[in-house]
Amino acid sequence: MSADTTTELGAPARKDNPWLWHAGVAAFTLVWFVVYRQLPGFSEWLTGLLPVERTSHTGEAIAFFLYDAPKVIMLLTLIVFWMGVIRSWFSPEKTRALLAGKREGVGNVMSATLGIFTPFCSCSAVPLFIGFVSAGVPLGVTFSFLIAAPMVNEVALVLLWGLVGWQVAVTYLVFGLGIAIVAGWVIGRFHLEGWLQGWVREIHAGAAGPLPEEDLTMVDRYRDGIESVKEIVGKVWIWIIVGITLGAIIHGYVPEGAMVRIMGSGAWWSVPVAVVMGIPMYTNAAGVIPIVEALLDKGAALGTVLAFMMSVIALSLPEMLILRKVLTWRLITVFVAVVGSGILAVGFLFNLIF
Predict the structure, then answer these.
(1) Cβ(348)–Cβ(271) under 8 Å?
(2) Predicted model pTM
(3) In terms of residue numbers, what domain contains 225?
(4) Cα–Cα distance between 148 and 310 in angstroms, integer?
(5) Which of 171, 179, 320, 348 has its CA at 20 to 30 Å from residue 29's CA atom?
(6) Mean pLDDT score of the chain, rounded to an integer?
(7) Are residues 38 and 180 in the same domain?
């Protein structure tokens, strides 16, 4: 990528002025913070204009939606832009090179940590598996990366921080990473490479190819951030709206007593039921977090809600169908059993403590 452009006649165009880009990005960030601080008052003002009683179930649901919808979209836009800038220093080739040849244990920790900062989701499972296997990355280390990448990503962490507090965000980070590291290590101990699909096993392990040369300017990296916003926000905004709508319905209409009985810490069966409910859902961190916020507001137990969120993101049925292209059903079953056991342990532990 280059900051140079050419005109229609083929003559080189004037180079971008980096200082104008710096100033524009700084202005955008400043305006973002100013607008973000006005959202509570704006949502209340807008709700007051509607012909509904503010304290009614409908009024509560509408106020929740009018506040959370712009809040989540704004948070997501800012996060994705800056992470797009940061990710311009990463690439799949560099990630594979960092993990290739790493021993299990250290490799599991490294791969799970890289999963937080690299631009991969469960939909990237097939090409990532092929690339990692061809680079000689151990199977368990690969699983640690593939668990952490969708489940413990910057979108989930910052949205959790902004919507339900830093304590929940840090809790999710620590235990999400723990599940990714331990689950990958356990799978690696089983030595299940023979349970990969046959065509994957035939890929010869070896060193990754030479890394591509990169000569990106800061303007190029800003452009990468803008492209990330277009791509990611453009794909997930509908799921955000769906998630916020469900959260608004829960917030406005579901009685607190009923929610406590269903997902409270006193119901021992709530954690496994939450995990089973989460698996068939097709959404992502941005879509499920507004639901998490509403559940916690209604008195649902923290462990149960975290188990539900983790199962939606890490064990979704669409992800299993994608992984089927590179894994046998036996290996998928092991993957679900190990990760699911970790999620259940987190849910029961937090319900016991809190």
Answers:
(1) yes
(2) 0.64
(3) 16-87+217-235
(4) 11
(5) 171
(6) 78
(7) no
